[in-house]
Write a structure and sequence with these properties.
2 domains, NADH Oxidase, about 45% helix, flavoprotein, alpha+beta, 4-stranded antiparallel beta sheet, about 210 residues, single chain, globular
Length: about 210
């Protein structure tokens, strides 16, 4: 069996973390790099990623997370916060980065920049926010896969109140909205979920071959 499939069979949505075990700084950097390398539409990465280790902040977030213990027991809480609106600055900064990274004349990128703006700015603010929120799921996928390879437990969570997260973390002032949460750390030996068989649709029900 391929190592990737073995890692996917190993991982599960951890329900109880061991609060005494912390993710090392080295492994955290690897996870950050995995998130950084995630694919996104246009390569724009229209989000920020908050990495929360401060226990006091975790305690504040607990009631807004349906009092799920993972928030306070995990080593780190990772909040994927999407841009609520794309403006000229976001796209201009993106193309400035392309020009610098690839040693290009930014004037040569003007046509593609104008094209991108025409497509994104044609969306309503609501549709922009929906689109940017979807991009965070791509980044989450990279995090989950990298964590499994490092044998770090990770739990994706949609069970939280975004508005309260936005307030606690002052996200609105940054044109951001809490889209997704993931907790990372190490499973507690008393977490019964780790012993359950993984339940998935059989392949003949999941896939349609044309």
């Amino acid at each position: 069996m391929a190592p990737f499939i073995q890692n996917q069979n190993w991982r599960y949505a951890t329900k109880k973390f061991d609060p005494a075990k912390k993710v090392s700084a080295e492994d955290l950097e690897t996870l950050k790099e995995a998130i950084q390398l995630s694919t996104s539409s246009y390569g724009l990465q229209p989000y920020k990623v908050l990495i929360i280790e401060d226990q006091a902040i975790k305690e504040q977030l607990l009631p807004a997370s349906w009092n799920q213990s993972q928030i306070v027991d995990a080593s780190h809480v990772i909040v994927f916060a999407n841009y609520t609106k794309i403006d000229d600055r976001v796209i201009d900064d993106f193309f400035a980065n392309i020009a610098e990274t690839r040693n290009l004349d930014i004037a040569d990128l003007q046509g593609y920049k104008d094209f991108m703006k025409s497509k994104i700015f044609a969306l309503s603010e609501e549709k922009q926010a929906t689109w940017t929120s979807k991009q965070t799921y791509l980044a989450l996928g990279n995090l989950l896969n990298a964590a499994a390879e490092l044998k770090i437990d990770a739990t994706p969570m949609e069970g939280f109140e975004p508005e309260k997260y936005n307030e606690i973390l002052n996200l609105k002032d940054l044109n951001l909205n809490a889209s997704l949460v993931a907790t990372i750390g190490y499973r507690h030996q008393e977490d019964p979920s780790q012993h359950l068989k993984k339940v998935r649709k059989p392949k003949n029900e999941l896939f349609i071959n044309l």
